[in-house]
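To the wet lab folks,

You asked to see what we're planning to order before we commit. Fair enough. Below is the target structure as tokens, and below that is the sequence we designed to fit it. If anything looks off to you, flag it before the synthesis order goes out.
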């Protein structure tokens, strides 16, 4: 996402080099969405995967409808839109099938059965291999899974966003045998410790408008991150690596998808897969960063997160 929008200016050459390096390092899941750019990120990923398509599981999403100029149209889960969105993504990615196709957000005006029914038709047509949902509530997940098996549920999960542990989502997917894909596992970069003041973010970085990056929330969250940094220092790893290792420690059915625009951070993230946290370290992390510890809402306006 950050390669094309939201996190300041991008650099296509470095972005492509980063994707290539990821594949070389054994990263097998690449996650994008039609709304990133909008549309530009799928094209970027498609170019980067030229000649390497068979080496990755390619995931993209539909549902957050945007106009070419970036205007947000709204959440759309209507069957006819599902079909046109998929065809458009296939063209932009330059592939004949999508391995994992997500509904990016749940459309409150369209029954989930209708949306997933249309997605299932894409599987039958060979355009999509597996289906996923993003930011869906437990009942929605169950209803969708009854129409067609859901392979993955993607929702924000990290030390500073532990909602899935308390809102029934994690329990639901585990009961159904659905994998959990944790987005923003580094707390949108905050858990890296590199962001010490709002001015560290580019003027056009959307995080400047995120409640957790503002005012008293920023200062309180900074104090939490400082404690994570202390644990990481004692472990001899970067705080971002500790945060990723924590997500990885939550189960073999959990796959974090850290985003980065640069090879340097990519390599640091990948190295987190080799870090093993002891029970004592996990307990210590829970003590300093318990459920609900982060200050501020996840988004400035939570209404787009229909569940």
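Sequence we intend to order:
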């Amino acid at each position: 996402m950050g390669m094309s929008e939201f996190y300041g200016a991008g650099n296509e050459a470095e972005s492509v080099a980063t994707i290539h390096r990821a594949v070389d390092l054994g990263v097998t899941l690449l996650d994008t969405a039609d709304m990133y750019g909008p549309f530009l990120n799928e094209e970027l990923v498609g170019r980067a995967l030229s000649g390497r398509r068979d080496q990755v599981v390619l995931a993209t999403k539909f549902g957050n409808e945007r106009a070419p100029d970036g205007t947000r149209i709204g959440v759309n889960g209507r069957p006819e839109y599902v079909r046109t969105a998929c065809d458009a993504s296939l063209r932009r990615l330059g592939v004949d099938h999508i391995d994992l196709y997500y509904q990016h957000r749940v459309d409150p005006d369209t029954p989930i059965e209708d949306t997933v029914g249309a997605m299932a038709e894409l599987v039958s047509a060979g355009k999509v291999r597996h289906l996923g949902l993003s930011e869906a509530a437990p009942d929605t997940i169950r209803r969708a899974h009854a129409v067609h098996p859901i392979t993955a549920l993607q929702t924000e999960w990290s030390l500073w966003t532990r909602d899935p542990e308390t809102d029934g989502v994690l329990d639901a997917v585990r009961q159904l045998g659905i994998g959990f894909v944790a987005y923003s596992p580094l707390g949108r970069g905050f858990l890296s410790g590199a962001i010490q003041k709002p001015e560290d973010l580019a003027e056009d970085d959307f995080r400047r408008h995120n409640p957790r990056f503002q005012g008293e929330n920023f200062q309180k969250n900074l104090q939490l991150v400082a404690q994570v940094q202390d644990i990481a220092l004692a472990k001899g790893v970067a705080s971002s690596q500790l945060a990723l290792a924590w997500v990885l420690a939550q189960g073999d059915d959990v796959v974090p998808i850290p985003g980065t625009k640069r090879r340097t951070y990519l390599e640091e993230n990948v190295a987190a897969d080799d870090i093993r946290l002891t029970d004592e370290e996990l307990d210590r992390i829970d003590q300093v960063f318990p459920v609900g510890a982060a200050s501020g809402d996840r988004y400035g306006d939570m209404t787009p997160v229909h569940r």
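Structural context that might help your review: The mean pLDDT is 92. The chain has ten helices and nine strands.

Thanks,
Computational group
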